[in-house]
Design goal:
This protein has one domain: Alpha-Beta Complex (Ribosomal Protein L22, Chain A), CATH 3.90.470. About 20% of the residues lie in helices and about 30% in strands. It has five helices and twelve strands. The strands form three sheets. Strands 1, 8, 9, 10, 11 and 12 form a six-stranded antiparallel β-sheet that branches. The longest helix is centred in the first third of the chain and has 21 residues, at about 65-85. It is globular. The protein starts with a strand and ends in a 9-residue tail after the last helix.
Length: about 250
């Protein structure tokens, strides 16, 4: 998997290789303008992943099919690698509301597509929420005018539907699936307009987020974004508000 920064001469990872298992990209970083640097790590769905007890309980509770169990385990393996690369001590990734619950000092997000899982993490003191989304080129044929109505808004830059959909998924995750007014955050409420190396995303009257877009030579797209932490969204506020959801989803 070779992802290049959209509209940038740099090659992400140049190329994506590292100290992971053969064929698995090593941890790397991505700079999200206006937010900061996130650490990314990958795992293949066919890799073996040791799970913590709490993760095994969630796996048995939610993941009924072999494919879903592989996705769950690979996401946790990618999370371990990302947290270790960030300098933290890997631990169980459970659930806080509708987003993954990492260690108290870490904010992160997970995604999987086309045989891969990816984790994006950053320091909890810096980020109120992190979002990452991976879409393989196989997703392109299913995105057209009919499906676009399900996630587009009239003001979106819809020149690349796969990148737009992925960007909105990342923003949704960074907001924890919840709109600023406390209701459910639906994708058409996220307005994405073109920006250098990605999109500018707006949700209601909140400060805009930049969504970084990486493109693969095989047509795949990876997007990442983050919400900067404030006093109202810092680690202490998030710990006070966390209620674990027994039915997690990545």
């Amino acid at each position: 998997m070779d992802l290049t920064v959209a509209a940038d001469r740099a090659v992400f990872g140049d190329p994506l290789t590292g100290d992971g298992p053969v064929g698995v990209p090593g941890p790397d970083v991505i700079d999200v303008p206006g937010a900061g640097v996130l650490t990314l790590a990958f795992a293949r769905l066919d890799e073996h992943a040791e799970l913590f007890a709490g993760e095994r309980a969630l796996l048995d509770l939610e993941c009924r099919t072999p494919a879903r169990r592989r996705e769950f385990a690979a996401g946790r393996l990618a999370a371990r690698r990302a947290v270790a690369a960030l300098g933290g001590r890997p631990g169980p990734v459970l659930r806080a509301g509708c987003r993954p619950l990492f260690a108290p000092a870490v904010e992160g997000s997970l995604s999987h597509s086309g045989g891969w899982a990816v984790a994006a993490v950053g320091p909890g003191r810096r980020f109120a929420g992190v979002g990452v989304d991976l879409e393989t080129g196989a997703s392109r044929p299913v995105l057209g005018p009919r499906t676009a109505r399900l996630f587009c808004s009239p003001d979106d830059d819809a020149s690349d539907l796969l990148a737009l959909f992925s960007a909105k998924e990342s923003v949704y995750k960074a907001w924890g699936g919840q709109a600023p007014d406390g209701g459910e955050l639906r994708l058409p409420r996220i307005v994405c307009t073109a920006a250098p190396h990605g999109f500018t995303a707006r949700v209601a009257d909140e400060p805009p987020l930049h969504v970084r877009v990486l493109r693969g030579l095989d047509g795949s797209v990876l997007t990442a974004t983050a919400r900067p932490a404030t006093r109202a969204t810092g680690p202490a506020a998030r710990r006070a508000a966390r209620v674990e959801d027994p039915l997690p989803h990545d």
